[in-house]
């Protein structure tokens, strides 16, 4: 069966104007759980086209700067956070080429636009290509994931995330046992709502009081190290999460996230393996 771009387009990705406020992005995140959006603006020819993308990582990079901490979400423009002139696909783009680009450049969202805007490709939609893969998941497990203590401040967690290309942080208790996780989405949302709800004069003092345990998600998805990549991809897809804890006979082994799965998919497609 020929795999087509159109079969993997997510049409429910929020579309914002570059002059919209950051509050609009936060509202969409609260309503849909989607932490990525397409950004449009008028071109010199008068047409409105995709001119950027904005993600929770983009927000996390800038949201706690001294200048922005003194502002409000309603006064901050999407244009100040978005990645401009993003890579775009069209309905005619080769799917293998798109997966390779998403993997090699670390993109989490790729707009699909030709004469019209069709939506976007996100990692989750591509996980369906791996549902029948019988390779052992242990081959792609990240055995050295980012970790944070439950008592760590979100400022420290932010620094851990932005120091790498990883977006999934395992939260451990004082004994080093995993008790939850944080993703870029939860951390960015925490800082955005902090600015939304806390008066400016109290922010500098209170921002360090944002603690990992208060924002983490309890671990609700564990994958056995003996599972297949197909089983892992399906579990993550259906759980609507970015990753899962992998456990073996001795307990915690590591994590597998949508990033590892897409990187594996890219290698598999480029090697000519039959996928899907």
Automatic annotation (TrEMBL):
A Pfam family annotated for this UniProt entry: CBS
Record's keyword terms, sorted: CBS domain
Domain CBS: 12-64, 144-192
Claim: Transcription is one of the keywords in the record: no
Species the sequence originates in: Thermosphaera chiliense
CDD domains: CBS_pair_SF
Protein name: CBS domain-containing protein
Domain of life: Archaea
């Amino acid at each position: 069966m020929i795999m087509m771009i159109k079969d993997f387009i997510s049409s429910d990705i929020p579309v914002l104007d570059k002059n919209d406020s950051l509050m609009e992005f936060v509202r969409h995140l609260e309503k849909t759980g989607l932490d990525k959006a397409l950004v449009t603006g008028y071109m010199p020819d008068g047409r409105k086209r995709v001119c950027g993308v904005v993600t929770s990582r983009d927000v996390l990079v800038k949201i706690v700067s001294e200048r922005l901490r003194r502002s409000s979400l309603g006064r901050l423009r999407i244009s100040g956070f978005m990645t401009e002139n993003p890579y775009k696909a069209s309905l005619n783009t080769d799917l293998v080429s798109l997966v390779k680009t998403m993997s090699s450049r670390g993109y989490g969202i790729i707009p699909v636009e030709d004469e019209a805007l069709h939506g976007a490709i996100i990692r989750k939609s591509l996980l369906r290509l791996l549902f029948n893969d019988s390779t052992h998941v242990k081959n792609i497990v990240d055995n050295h994931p980012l970790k944070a203590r439950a008592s760590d401040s979100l400022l420290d967690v932010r620094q851990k995330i932005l120091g790498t290309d990883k977006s999934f942080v395992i939260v451990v208790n004082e004994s080093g046992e995993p008790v939850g996780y944080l993703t870029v989405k939860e951390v960015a949302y925490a800082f955005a709502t902090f600015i939304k709800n806390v008066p400016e004069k109290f922010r500098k003092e209170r921002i360090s009081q944002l603690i990992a345990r208060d924002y983490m998600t309890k671990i609700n998805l564990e994958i056995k190290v003996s599972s297949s990549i197909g089983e892992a991809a399906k579990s993550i897809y259906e759980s609507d999460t970015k990753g899962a804890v992998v456990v073996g006979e001795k307990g915690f082994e590591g994590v597998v996230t949508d990033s590892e799965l897409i990187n594996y998919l890219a290698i598999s497609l480029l090697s000519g393996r039959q996928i899907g």
